[in-house]
């Protein structure tokens, strides 16, 4: 029987999910952050097996076929998915697991793990989201525009999630996130 909590952090690209999750892990080192598989190419400094499992489209397709992914989605031209086995093992060991994933995957999780707690991170404004994506400096102009276009559709779905937190001031958002997480673990 599984007893750890499954916590999903979702929201548009560039809103600060990764930044918040890494700060959260400093505070709660016992939480397990799932490492996703992706067909995206690594960015400078990203490490295979730590930031992502960087795989080919063929390998990703095989993972889908073999039901090795708990959820997966296509996002801005690449595929992303959560490897099932590590998540199930941690939950069975009573370790709570964090997924930092986009909205389609977060919707799928609701079907397989109805008790998962899903938090939607919002930007203070669309202009600020645009600014964060640009100043991160990891995407081409085309990719930024694609992610911003998708962000409009994603933000429209925010009410489908258990909680919404605005990431304006980082420390304030982190405090709100900690409060939500402490209420369930
Ligand atoms: N509260 C904040 N105020 C200002 N800048 C922020 C804040 N939170 C995050 N950032 C910055 O915004 C940029 C995007 O943050 P981050 O990479 O964490 O977003 P993300 O939601 O994980 O993106 P993706 O979904 O593409 O992985 C980073 O440069 C980060 O330093
Ligand atoms: N559905 C899933 N989405 C995921 C997963 N891992 C990451 N992501 C999300 O993809 C976008 C783009 O990520 P980036 O690293 O290219 O900026 C972002 O919203 C991530 O949260 C996953 O396993 N499943």
Automatic annotation (TrEMBL):
<dbReference type="InterPro" id="IPR027417">
    <property type="entry name" value="P-loop_NTPase"/>
</dbReference>
<protein>
    <recommendedName>
        <fullName>Guanylate kinase</fullName>
        <ecNumber>2.7.4.8</ecNumber>
    </recommendedName>
</protein>
<dbReference type="GO" id="GO:0005829">
    <property type="term" value="C:cytosol"/>
</dbReference>
<dbReference type="GO" id="GO:0004385">
    <property type="term" value="F:GMP kinase activity"/>
</dbReference>
<keyword id="KW-0067">ATP-binding</keyword>
<dbReference type="InterPro" id="IPR017665">
    <property type="entry name" value="Guanylate_kinase"/>
</dbReference>
<comment type="function">
    <text>Essential for recycling GMP and indirectly, cGMP.</text>
</comment>
<keyword id="KW-0808">Transferase</keyword>
<dbReference type="InterPro" id="IPR008144">
    <property type="entry name" value="Guanylate_kin-like_dom"/>
</dbReference>
<feature type="binding site">
    <location>
        <begin position="11"/>
        <end position="18"/>
    </location>
    <ligand>
        <name>ATP</name>
    </ligand>
</feature>
<keyword id="KW-0963">Cytoplasm</keyword>
<dbReference type="GO" id="GO:0005524">
    <property type="term" value="F:ATP binding"/>
</dbReference>
<keyword id="KW-0418">Kinase</keyword>
<dbReference type="Pfam" id="PF00625">
    <property type="entry name" value="Guanylate_kin"/>
</dbReference>
<dbReference type="InterPro" id="IPR020590">
    <property type="entry name" value="Guanylate_kinase_CS"/>
</dbReference>
<comment type="similarity">
    <text>Belongs to the guanylate kinase family.</text>
</comment>
<feature type="domain" description="Guanylate kinase-like">
    <location>
        <begin position="4"/>
        <end position="182"/>
    </location>
</feature>
<dbReference type="InterPro" id="IPR008145">
    <property type="entry name" value="GK/Ca_channel_bsu"/>
</dbReference>
<keyword id="KW-0547">Nucleotide-binding</keyword>
């Amino acid at each position: 029987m599984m007893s750890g909590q499954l916590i999903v952090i979702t929201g548009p690209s560039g809103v600060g999910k990764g930044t918040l999750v890494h700060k959260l892990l400093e505070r709660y080192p016992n939480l397990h952050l799932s490492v996703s598989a992706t067909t995206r190419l690594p960015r400078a400094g990203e490490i295979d097996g730590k930031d992502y499992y960087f795989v080919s489209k063929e390998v990703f397709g095989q993972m889908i076929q073999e039901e090795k992914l708990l959820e997966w989605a296509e996002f801005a031209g690449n595929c992303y998915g959560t490897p099932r086995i590590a998540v199930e093992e941690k939950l069975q060991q009573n370790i709570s697991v964090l997924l930092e994933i986009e909205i389609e995957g977060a919707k799928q999780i609701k079907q397989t793990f109805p008790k998962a707690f899903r938090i939607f991170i919002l930007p203070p404004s669309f202009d600020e989201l645009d600014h964060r994506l640009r100043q991160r400096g990891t995407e081409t102009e085309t990719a930024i525009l694609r992610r911003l276009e998708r962000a409009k559709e994603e933000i429209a779905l925010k009410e489908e999630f258990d909680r919404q937190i605005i990431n304006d001031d980082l420390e304030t958002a982190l405090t709100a996130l900690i409060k939500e997480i402490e209420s369930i673990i």
